[in-house]
Structure formats: structure tokens, C-alpha cells
Amino acid sequence: MSAKRLIGVDDFIERLRSFESGLITRDAVLDLCSSVQISDSSLSRYVHFDDAFYTRNLVYRDELFEVMTICWQPGQRTAVHTHNGQLCWMISQRGTLEVVDYKWLGCDHPEYQNVIGIDCLAGSDHTQLERLKSTLATTDGPVLTADKLQTIHQIFNHAESRDRAVSIHVYSRPIDSCVAFDMENQRCYRRELSYFSLYGEVQPKAAPAVAPSNLVTLGR
Questions:
Q1: Bridge partner residues of 97 (DSSP)
Q2: Which of 62, 72, 163, 204 is the most buried (most CB within 10 A)?
Q3: What are the DSSP calls for 96-107, one per residue?
Q4: Considering the entire predicted model, what is its pTM?
Q5: Distance CA 13, CA 25 (A)
Q6: Domain locations in the chain?
């Protein structure tokens, strides 16, 4: 495997934007993400940690692409969630994360599926998911993806790692909400997403969304 080229995040975004004049495919963007290493110095203003939740920090957004850093303290994790039918790429910048993929088997409201503009209306009380596989995301490992066939997963920074982690996420198109799953009670609901920081500026904290008490919510 050839050595990755070290570039700044602004250069990375310009390369992403070059895809916007044609068809954006999972593999084309994957080739770009796999061939470069984004410098820590160019990302420093987008790296913010919070003790309560992992943080979503917006680096760039237009109609076709969204780029963010997600910063993880030990023990922080997402809910099991979808990606709203969009393409996603995840680059491990620092630390080690575990990504667990799931397959949707069915629910009591199949008519809620395949809605224009989103993947699902959510609101099922009998959702069935199958755990497929677990992958460690490391700085020297492959870029992980979600696509229109494999779109459900959960991400962990395990408490025993004792290390902070930073990952870079690229979405096409941008994602404003997703379906989150309460695995214990087999329920799901649509979750609105927010940012901890916008273009390097930390945002005031909003009131938390109401969710089942045992559900790990998607952070800011």
C-alpha cells in the first residue's frame, strides 16, 4: 500500500468539492479518504471534547457534502442509528473506536419505510435488528463506510481504552436527523441532530431532547 499524503483539511474539502461536478459515488470518495492523512494542526480548531456526550463539530457543509469531526471521551458512544439513507465515510484521526453494524429485519410499521427525503418515519414499538459484525476503527486501518445497503451502526469509545478519540465523518448528502434505536425495548424514534461547534465556534447548549431513559442519545 502506498503511503498516505499529508494534507490540511481545507485541501481535503476542496478535493471533495471536485466530485460535485459529476456523480458522487461511495468508492470515489473512499479512494480519496483512503489516500490522504489530514493534519492534526489543520483540525485543531474543530476538536472539542465534552464530559457529558461525544461532540459533533461542523467543519464544512454545502448542499452535497457535510464534513465534521466527532470527539470522544472514554466511555462515550452513540445509540444504534441510521444515516437517513445517505452515503457516509469515517476516517479515524486519533484513538481506537469500535463500530458495530446491524441489519434491519422488520418492524410493526413497514409502511413507514422508504419515505422521500428520509429513510424512515420511525415510531415502531417492535423493531427487529440483527447484529452483523464489529470492526475496530484505527488510524492505520481502513476508512469505514455506510451506504444505502449497510446504513445502521453504533460507535463506541470503550471506557477501558482510557484514551480520547477523534474521527472525521463525511456525509453525502448532509444529515439533519436519523432513526435511533432503543435496543432493549425494540423501539425506534427519529432524532434531530445538532452540532457542538460550528466552524470552530462552540455553540450554546440546547435543552436535551426527550428520549427513553435507557436510550443512549446522539450527542451534540
A1: 137
A2: 72
A3: -EEEEEEEEEE-
A4: 0.88
A5: 16
A6: 5-200
